[in-house]
Amino acid sequence: MLKIDTNGDAVADIAYRVRFSSSADGSQTATVRRVEGAEAAETGDSGQVIIEAAPVSTGRDARVTEAGGYRFFAGWRSDPFFFDTQGILNDFQFTGDDFFADKDVCGIVLEVPNSDLGAKRVSLWACTLIGAAGDWVQVDRGALPAQAVFLVGTERDAYMAGEPADDDRFVPVFAHSLEHTGRYAPEEAKRAARTLLPEVLPYDPTRPASFPGNGRTLTDDAGDAFLAILTNGKVTGDKVGPHIDLLAEFPYLGPPHNISVPSPATSPIATELRKASRRLGSS
Ligand SMILES: [Ca+2]
Ligand SMILES: [Ca+2]
User: Fold this and answer.
1) Helix spans in the chain (H)
2) Closest ligand to residue 7's CA
3) Contact, 72 vs 54, CB < 8 A?
4) From the CB of residue 195, how many other CB atoms can be counted at a distance below 10 Å?
5) How far is the CA of 6 from the centre of ligand 1 (A)?
6) How do 29-36 and 65-67 pair as beta strands?
7) Nearest ligand atom owner, CA of 41
8) Cα distance between residue 105 and residue 96, in whole Å
9) Which strands, in side-by-side order, build the sheet including 65-67?
10) Which ligand is closest to the CA of 243, given by its number?
11) Does pTM top 0.70 for this prediction?
């Protein structure tokens, strides 16, 4: 689910809900609904259908679905994220080894008409829900890179299930992690934590996208920006830059490296990130 706050209270006013069919028979489709107003902040799957039964891409070619000013892609792609993960495990000694250079990711790309969002500044985030016993349960969310991995400590489950509007409650745990990783003084750590919460991505459509001030392009070095905060300015880069396999056209993400891919639950990325998170959180 992609959520958009249009009036600065960190509560969604617009939501795009992508619901996937079962993949039991080997193929899978996605239906996208749009909902506006108070309902956008809820977890149901009602809303106006804007993309219906779009095929999910499991091969090298991106299967793009277009309808009524919208373009949609979902499926395997080359992971556009770039970061020297091993360097963080090795006490921030970076060698420029991009852990994600040969990795794939399941991606969702949605293009919407400008008129859908208006001309004012908005805040964006995404969340993942699974259907459990007739209810939708939120199991993941995020807007800014890495902080849900490295700063939430033992409150990971509560954070993943949380809403940006309630993020003030995570200032203490973020501050605690920052004291550890960046040797921040306690008050300084709280101030830094407040710059990262609520976790939303601000975007003013009248200005070019550029992380961290205004949205984020696929080539913006969001990993470096996060490192500078994590280390209180002591480390400002991991010597890794953007990937060169991005496409000039929709869906922008490059073709997957491997067509036969591991399941996300056992992927090396998930394992590495869990290790890194445990280590940084062990103060
Ligand atoms: Ca709002
Ligand atoms: Ca970098």
Assistant:
1) 85-89, 147-150, 156-160, 171-182, 186-196, 222-230, 268-280
2) 1
3) yes
4) 9
5) 5
6) unpaired
7) 1
8) 21
9) 65-67, 70-78, 104-111
10) 2
11) yes
Q: What is the pLDDT of residues 21-69, one digit of tens each?
A: 988 887 899 999 999 999 999 988 899 999 999 999 999 999 999 999 9
Residue position matching structure tokens 């016993």:
133
Match 């973020």 to its residue by tokens: 174
CA dihedral 127, 131, 133, 138 (to 10 degrees): -10
Q: Nearest-5° angle of CA 236, CA 241, CA 247?
A: 145
CA of 94 to the centre of ligand 2 (A): 10
pLDDT score at 282? 43
Q: How far is the CA of 128 from the centre of ligand 2 (A)?
A: 27
Residue 163 backbone zone (phi > 0: left; psi -120 to 50: alpha; other: beta): beta
- Residue entry with tokens 């277009």: 66
d(CA 215, ligand 1 centre) in Å: 18
Q: Which residue has the tokens 């807007």?
A: 143
Smallest-distance ligand from the CA of 164: 1
Distance from the CA of 35 to the center of ligand 2, in angstroms? 36
Q: Which residue has the tokens 């890495």?
A: 146
Q: How far, in Å, from the CA of 95 to the mean position of ligand 2?
A: 11
How far is ligand 2, taken at its centre, from the CA of residue 269, in Å?
17
Evaluate whether 4 touches 15 at the Cβ level (below 8 Å).
yes
Handedness of CA 30, 35, 38, 40 (dihedral sign): positive
